[in-house]
Amino acid sequence: QVQLSESGGGLVQAGGSLRLSCAVSGRTVSINEIGWYRQAPGKQRELVAAASSGGRVNYADSVKGRFTISRDDAKNTVYLQMNSLKPEDTAVYYCNYKVLIPWARSEYWGQGTQVTVSA
User: Fold this and answer.
1) Is the CB of residue 17 less than 8 Å from the CB of residue 30?
2) Given its phi and psi angles, is residue 74 left (phi above 0), alpha (psi -120 to 50 degrees) or beta?
3) Residue 41: which residues within 8 A CB-CB, separation 6 or more?
4) Residue 59 and residue 42: Cα distance in Å, rounded?
5) Which among 66, 73, 64, 78 is positioned nearest to 31, based on CA atoms?
6) pLDDT per residue over 79-102, tens digit each?
7) Burial of 57 by CB count in 10 Å (0-12 exposed, 13-18 middle, 19+ buried)?
8) What is the spatial distance between Cα 23 and Cα 61, in angstroms, rounded to a whole number?
């Protein structure tokens, strides 16, 4: 099992910044992808950004140029730096861990952290 613990959410005014952290623990593997997803009320959960152990990074078009995902594998922690926040970024943000080993694919979710951006 893999455990994910998010932190860093909160209330911020439009144009402000927040940094989310996701601490990963448990039975991790070397071939993985860690990402951030978000879910706003009444909407489906969507990918925000993801970074693989192989160096591939992917962002949603809506956050490109404003958000940056980074990994500190020595600390087993992933960060999401969010700048120029907009009210439409308001959502619960979830950390996601995917095992990419073909014969052992699985994924895990954190409990989520609320991000609220006021106009």
Assistant:
1) no
2) alpha
3) none
4) 22
5) 73
6) 999 999 999 999 999 999 999 888
7) middle
8) 25
Residue with tokens 């995902």: 69
DSSP for the chain, written as a single string? -EEEEEE--EEEETT--EEEEEEEEES--SSEEEEEEEE-TTS--EEEEEEETTS-EEE-GGGTTTEEEEEETTTTEEEEEE-S--GGG-EEEEEEEEE--GGG-EEEE---EEEEEE-
* Tens of pLDDT, residues 33-42: 999 999 999 9
CA distance 36 to 6: 10
∠ CA 36-106-82, nearest 5°, is 5
